[in-house]
Known about the structure:
This protein is an alpha+beta fold. The protein has 8 helices and 12 strands.
Amino acid sequence: xxxxxxxxxxxxxxxxxxxxxxxxxxxxxxxxxxxxxxxxxxxxxxxxxxxxxxxxxxxxxxxxxxxxxxxxxxxxxxxxxxxxxxxxxxxxxxxxxxxxxxxxxxxxxxxxxxxxxxxxxxxxxxxxxxxxxxxxxxxxxxxxxxxxxxxxxxxxxxxxxxxxxxxxxxxxxxxxxxxxxxxxxxxxxxxxxxxxxxxxxxxxxxxxxxxxxxxxxxxxxxxxxxxxxxxxxxxxxxxxxxxxxxxxxxxxxxxxxxxxxxxxxxxxxxxxxxxxxxxxxxxxxxxxxxxxxxxxxxxxxx
Length: 302
C-alpha cells in the first residue's frame, strides 16, 4: 500500500521574500519518471502554464524591487513586426542597446544590470508588444531618474543607410509596484507575471546575471493532514494562523488550490490524500525583527 504524507517545499526569493507550497505526496513520487509517450492533456497544459508562471514570479521577486522599473512598449506606424520572431529580435536588440548605453553613460559593469523582458501577443491576431523589468542597483537616485529616460529613449531603430534613429512606438518605464507584482493590488491574484502569462504568445529574454530562487530542503514531517485541511478551509483567510507556522515572516498572499492543481501526482489513487486534500501556496515577506521578538519565538498554533 502506498504511503502518503504532507510536504512543505520552500523557495527563498532573495533576502526579502519566500514562497511556500504545501501539498500531499506519495512514496511513488521518489521514483524516476518514464519517458513521455503522448501529448499532455489540455488540463495538464494549463497546470504546466501556471507552474511556469509561479517559477517566473519567484524569479522576479528574487531579482527586482522598488528601485527598478516595469516596462511596457508598443509599436506604431510601419515598425509593427509581422511575426513573433521579429518582435523577439527587436526586444533582444533593445536589451543590448540598454546594456551598452548604461555601461558607457554611468560606468557600471554589465553584470550590475538586470533585465527580464517578454515579447508578447494578446489574442490570436493581437498586436505584438513588450513587457518587462529592468534594474541597476549601482545607480543612485538621480542616476536612476536619468536611466528611466534612457530606457524610454532607447526603444528605437536605426534608419537604414544613416547613423540616425527613429522611435518604434510608445514605451513607459514605471517604478515597480511590489503590490502589483505580488498580486495584492490591481493585477489579479497572480500579479504582474500572471498578467503577462495571460497573453496568447510570449517569449522571455533576460540577462544572464539573474539570481535563481533557492529551493530549500523539503520538510515531510512538519504538517499533518488535519493541519493542512484546517489551513485551507477554516483559516484560508486567517493570516495570523499561517504566520504562526512561519515565525519571522508575514503573509503577503495565501492561495488555495484544488487537489492536483498546484502539485500533480503521476499516478494518483482514487482514495488517496493527493486526490482528496486541497493544496496551499503562500508568498511570505521577511518581518523586521523587533526588540520583543528577539527574546523568543512565537508559539505555533495548530
